[in-house]
Amino acid sequence: MTVAYEKYHGTDNDFVVVDADEYVPDRAAFAREVCDPAEGVGADGVLFLALEAQFSPPRAVMTLVQPDGSTAAMCGNGARCAARWAAERTGADAIMLDTQAGTRRAEVRDDAVTIEMGRASFAPEDVPLARDEPLVEEVVAGEDAPDLAVTAVNTGVPHAVAFVDDVDAVDLDAVAPALRHAEVFPEGANVTLAAPRDDGGFDQRTFERGVEGETRSCGTGAVAVGVVAHRLGLTDDESVAVFPPGGRLDVGVRDGRTTLTGPTVREFAGELASTPEPRRIRHA
């Protein structure tokens, strides 16, 4: 059996999109194989989307399965791609997305999509943290932890954010695993580096939990950079430009609520085997 899929990306954050009506007997195994760049299509995750076009605005239920087979409660760039997918099927310029982190409204304008990202939280129980106090600009203790001052925040998923002078001067693959698995993060954390730019924005690099490596862009990470920059007094702008390697994202921080805006691109479509060992059959 085969399933139809489409490939999208948001600032080079790649996703395979599959209609949830398609029969995939083992989504975790499917995602592990499909996301493999050598054996599958190559992606940072698989979005299973169930469209409910009878509502106004139309709704879509989003489930993100990551390359390691786990699910993530929220993904900013994935949500933006999901909104684009739903808009292309309904002609709507507003989409309601139901995610594991809550319902989020998306606005689709030309190639750009803005998604509500909800309220970021520094509260230990929300991140979550294995401590009673927020973790704000502290060096994470531990024999194997890197010497970085970290702020912990949940922007739909947990992030450990460290501001440095130059994100490219840090060997992220070397320092991130210790932080990602640090004892203070009982469920693990994404590791995000940020550095101020001369134009007032921030450079960003993120090592993603579930991908277990650096991605070209991370939407929840960009939001984490924006809200932590506000928390640390590095900016008071309501719109913060964040620059991961894949392009520019704009983070809105207003009255405690956040938004994420950036481009989305549909790359191609095709079919895949629905078994745990999918192979690319064709794309157009």
How would the blueprint of this fold be written?
Layout: E1 2-10, E2 13-19, H1 27-35, E3 46-52, E4 59-65, E5 71-72, H2 76-90, E6 94-99, E7 102-109, E8 112-119, E9 138-139, E10 149-154, E11 158-163, H3 172-180, E12 190-196, E13 202-208, E14 213-215, H4 219-231, E15 239-243, E16 249-254, E17 257-263, E18 265-273, E19 280-283
Parallel strand pairs: 2-3, 4-6, 11-12, 13-15
Antiparallel strand pairs: 1-2, 1-18, 3-4, 4-5, 6-7, 7-8, 8-17, 9-10, 10-11, 12-13, 13-14, 15-16, 16-17, 18-19
Molecular structure report:
16% of the residues lie in helices and 41% in strands. By secondary structure, the chain is α+β, with helices and mostly antiparallel strands. It folds into two domains: 130 residues, Diaminopimelate Epimerase, Chain A, domain 1 (Roll), CATH 3.10.310; 137 residues, Diaminopimelate Epimerase, Chain A, domain 1, CATH 3.10.310.10. The radius of gyration is 18 Å and the shape is globular.
Strand content: 35-45%
Largest sheet: 19 strands, mixed
Order of helices and strands: EEHEEEHEEEEEEHEEEHEEEEE
| CATH topology title of the largest domain | Diaminopimelate Epimerase, Chain A, domain 1
- Provide the residue-averaged pLDDT: 93
Span of the ends, CA to CA: 19 Å
Cα Rg = 18 Å
CATH class value of the largest domain: Alpha Beta
> Which architecture of the largest domain would the CATH scheme give at its second level?
Roll
CATH superfamily of the largest domain: Diaminopimelate Epimerase, Chain A, domain 1
Total number of beta strands: 19
Helix/sheet category? alpha+beta
Integer tally of domains: 2
> Stretches where pLDDT falls below 50 for ≥5 residues?
278-284
Total number of helices: 4
